[in-house]
Each structure stands twice: as C-alpha cells, then as structure tokens.
Description:
By secondary structure, the protein is α+β, with helices and mostly antiparallel strands.
Amino acid sequence: xxxxxxxxxNNIKNKEKEKFFIKKELQCILNLYxxxxxxxxxxxxxxxxxxxxxxxxxxxxxxEKPVLKxxxxxxxxxxxxxxxxxxxxxxxxxxxxxxxxxINKTSWNKLKIVK
Length: 115
C-alpha cells in the first residue's frame, strides 16, 4: 500500500504566477512611462523575460538599444535585490525590495541618458 501525504500551503502555484509583473507593479511602471512620454523623454518600451528576471525596457528611439531597464529579479540572493534599475550597459543604478518605493524615490529627470 502506498503512503499518502497531505501537503498544506503548497507554494508552487504562487511561484508559477510570479513569472511576470503583478498588476500593481505593472500599473506603477506604466504610470511612470506615461509621465515620461508626456515629458518627451521616453518614446517606446518592450518587455523581456527569462528564467531569472523580467524586464521593462525603455527606449528613446525605437531602433536603438534600451536606455533603461526596470527589472524584477525572480531569484534574488538578498531581500534588497528584488527590483533593479539598470542602464543600457547592464550596470545597476538602484535596487530595492519594493518597486513602488524604488520608482517614487528615483529622480527620473536627473538621470542623464548617455549616447
């Protein structure tokens, strides 16, 4: 006879859902994008995803490399490495465990876009 186990609080389904930005995160990012488009700073965006991270990439022109990336780290080593802001070379500008605080505390107009 096989032994039957009862599994309580199975978190596998929750991990499957977190392979992209959740609704609150996406709303915060798109609100920032709308504000920066109205300023004339940003022109286009895209999403990219992988096993370890999901990124919202911002472009000045559609034919160039992304200028900034807002990244959600799916497998962080430390609690403050959940969200990143990276430049076009992949260098981390800021990092935080809360996306809303990261976006609100960043002065977006002072970030210089280097060509």
